[in-house]
């Protein structure tokens, strides 16, 4: 997922850069709430990049607050699979060891993703046996390595096209079939670890009802043909001004299959602001949105609350500030740059503390 830069936002950013160079002030920290991981029976997750685990303050905050880890990118094919077809497991192993040492669950992310087309596959004759064998071998090797530790996997990430009307066209769908490559990936993952909960994971399911409907039709077809799909991931990369009730409605719809729901990549962007100080109203609405999302998750039947994952620890870790996010001053997370809990964290802790 990337955030598009519109002409309007490009002009606004150019104007703001000339008007101010100091950047948005951080939001005030709040009295620390109890650690999030102590408040709920289901895991509270966070994504992580391996290099940050070497920073003691980062590692301690992560281990104290969260009870599940998702690798932000180092368990994807873009890291693990080398061009010559070999595997690189050093950083994924290090993330997995950290999780074990801090008594955290591990969620595998992500086996098959349209954005990770890889030369080791492109080189093979797509429709031939070597391509299908490489697909199976990759999934068996990766899921097999973390068998018994990763309790779950995003088996296919972001299968629905951005217009919400169809499945994405990608290297895997072209060569192995549109629905078939997804069913196959699920079967291979199940073969490698029959106990892992296997997810399809996608974004904007709350923003675009047509995308949600297409995603749900895919799930229905897969279940009907007996594919071992056992969980539904809804990323929830949203903005502070998402209409009230949109997340609750999406969760209700997605939960109708009776499968576990992973709110898998939550962040709430303050938008592409380039103001010297953040409008307080925007922050208030962001805090309220965090509480609303937590309430919506708690409204699911308890047995379907798989995990609630935040996409990054401190505001300086967010992907939204990077090249693909294009929001260099955003503050979408629960902890500020110094690792202090923000009002967003308090809001989550209040909901989970009362209802968790
Ligand atoms: O946040 C991730 C960023 O650091 C990586 O560079 C990028 C490519 O691997 O992926 C980002 O995470 C994405 C996630 O894997 C799938 N959903 C959207 C996330 C944000 O783009």
What is the element layout, followed by pairings?
Layout: H1 7-19, E1 44-48, H2 56-65, E2 68-71, H3 77-80, H4 90-101, E3 105-113, H5 119-122, H6 129-145, E4 150-157, H7 171-176, H8 180-192, E5 197-202, H9 209-224, E6 231-234, E7 237-239, H10 246-254, E8 261-269, H11 280-298, E9 305-310, H12 343-355
Parallel strand pairs: 1-2, 1-9, 2-3, 3-4, 4-5, 5-6, 6-8, 7-8, 8-9
The structure holds ligand 9MR.
Residues 1, 72-73, 76, 78, 157, 203, 235, 265, 319, 324 line the site of ligand 9MR.
Your description of this structure?
The chain has 356 residues and is an alpha/beta fold. The protein has a single domain, classed as TIM Barrel (Alpha-Beta Barrel). Helix content is 38%, strand content 15%. The protein contains twelve helices and nine strands. The protein has an eight-stranded parallel β-barrel, surrounded by four helices. Strand 5, helix 9 and strand 6 form a beta-alpha-beta unit. The chain is globular. Bound molecules: ligand 9MR. Residues 1, 72-73, 76, 78, 157, 203, 235, 265, 319, 324 line the site of ligand 9MR.
Report how far apart the termini are.
31 Å
CATH topology value: TIM Barrel
Q: How many distinct folded domains?
A: 1
Range of helix content: 25-40%
Strand line-up in the sheet with most strands: 1-2-3-4-5-6-8-9
């Amino acid at each position: 997922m990337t955030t598009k830069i519109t002409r309007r936002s490009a002009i606004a950013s150019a104007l703001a850069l000339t008007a101010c160079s100091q950047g948005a002030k951080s939001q005030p920290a709040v009295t620390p709430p109890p650690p999030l991981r102590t408040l709920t029976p289901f895991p509270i997750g966070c994504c992580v990049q391996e290099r940050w685990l070497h920073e003691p303050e980062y590692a301690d905050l992560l281990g104290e607050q969260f009870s599940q880890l998702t690798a932000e990118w180092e368990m994807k094919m873009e890291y693990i699979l080398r061009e010559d077809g070999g595997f690189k497991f050093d950083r994924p192993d290090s993330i997995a060891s950290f999780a074990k040492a801090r008594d955290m669950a591990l969620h595998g992310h992500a086996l098959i993703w349209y954005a990770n087309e890889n030369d080791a596959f492109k080189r093979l004759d797509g429709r031939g046996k070597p391509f299908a064998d490489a697909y199976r071998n990759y999934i068996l090797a990766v899921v097999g390595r973390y068998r018994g530790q990763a309790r779950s996997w995003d088996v296919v990430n972001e299968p629905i096209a951005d217009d919400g009307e169809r499945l994405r066209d990608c290297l895997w769908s072209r060569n192995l079939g549109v629905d078939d490559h997804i069913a196959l990936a699920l079967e291979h993952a199940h073969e490698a670890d029959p106990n892992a909960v296997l997810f399809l994971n996608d974004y904007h399911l709350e923003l675009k009802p047509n995308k949600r409907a297409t995603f749900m039709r895919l799930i229905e077809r897969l279940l009907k043909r007996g594919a071992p799909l056992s969980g539904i991931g809804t990323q929830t990369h949203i903005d502070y001004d998402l209409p009230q009730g949109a997340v609750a409605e999406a969760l209700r719809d997605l939960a109708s299959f009776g499968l576990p729901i992973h709110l898998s990549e939550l962040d709430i962007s303050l938008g592409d602001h380039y103001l010297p100080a953040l409008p307080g109203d925007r922050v208030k609405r962001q805090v309220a949105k965090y509480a609303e999302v937590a309430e919506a998750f708690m409204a699911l039947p308890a047995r379907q609350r798989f995990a609630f994952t935040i996409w990054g620890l401190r505001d300086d870790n967010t992907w939204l500030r990077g090249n693909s996010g294009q929001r260099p001053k955003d503050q979408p997370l629960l902890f500020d740059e110094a690792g202090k809990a923000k009002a967003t964290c308090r809001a989550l802790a209040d909901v989970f503390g009362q209802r968790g």
